[in-house]
Design a protein that fits this description.
binds zinc ion; globular; Metallo-beta-lactamase, Chain A; alpha/beta
Length: 258
């Protein structure tokens, strides 16, 4: 399985997941423009024609902004839950969408995508586990609090993109108004660095070979803080040594193969 994070953050999210065997791929979220998707895939010799489908986690603009133009140019099926669709399109007709339940499993060629409900302030938000062959990838951002489903899945995947949205101290002392701070910290908001570390400390194991921290806040976090806190965890857990990647808000990431 090959994973390319095209962008991650409140300015746009899109992750390309490819079967190493067939070359078929799916896109998880589509929060950057069709043009940027093309350009960023091209860096690694890929093209949207590799894509077989798009899967949408929830209707927030940073996860869907590029979808109408991408799917107009490329005939891709879009899988999303019906409440997410209703919120996005407000009952306007839209071609190419396919409803999935928030606990559905969808197979596209040799790629299987499982959806699970999650805690976030959207109409019917989900997270995904993608399977190709023996390999599994967990994609979980925009998460207020984790539950047993997230924890259980983290122990059974080879790669994961986990939200590490904000540093508690930076958020507390930063410029945001109190109600926005509360919204970010709420159980329908976002995971902090410490919550991400705690989740990984308690539930990840040696199977996890590639760990991507993503959806970092521009104002309340830095890649350096996230890296430092994860490396502190690795120092106390010699059994847990995944390759560590910090997903960028600005540039395409490496090809991550598991
Ligand atoms: Zn988001
Ligand atoms: Zn969101």
């Amino acid at each position: 399985m090959n994973i390319i994070v095209l962008n991650s953050g409140s300015n746009g999210n899109a992750v390309y997941v490819e079967s190493a065997r067939s070359g078929a791929a799916v896109l998880l979220d589509c929060g950057i423009s069709r043009r940027q998707i093309e350009l960023r895939l091209k860096v690694h010799g890929r093209h949207p024609q590799n894509l077989r489908a798009v899967f949408i986690t929830h209707e927030h603009a940073d996860h869907v902004r590029g979808l109408p133009v991408l799917t107009k140019l490329y005939p891709l099926s879009t899988y999303l839950t019906e409440p997410t669709f209703r919120r996005m399109y407000r009952n306007r007709p839209h071609k190419g969408h396919r409803f999935m339940e928030n606990s559905a499993t969808v197979t596209v060629e040799d790629i299987t995508v499982q959806a699970f409900p999650k805690s976030h302030d959207a109409s019917d938000p989900v997270f995904f586990v993608v399977t190709t062959g023996e390999k599994r990838f967990l994609y979980i951002t925009d998460l207020g609090v984790h539950d047993a489903a997230v924890a259980g899945m983290l122990a059974e995947v080879d790669a994961a993109l986990v939200e590490s949205n904000y540093d508690e101290h930076m958020l507390e002392t930063g410029p945001y108004p109190p109600d926005l701070k509360d919204r970010i910290r709420a159980e329908y908001g976002h995971l902090s660095n410490l919550q991400a570390v705690d989740l990984l400390r308690r539930h990840a194991n040696g199977r996890l070979r590639a760990l991507i921290l993503g959806h970092l806040s521009e104002n309340n976090n830095t890649p350096e803080i996230v890296r430092r806190e994860m490396e502190a965890l690795f120092a106390e857990r010699p059994d847990f040594r995944p390759a560590l990647h910090i997903a960028s808000r600005y540039t395409v990431g490496d090809v991550i193969s598991v």
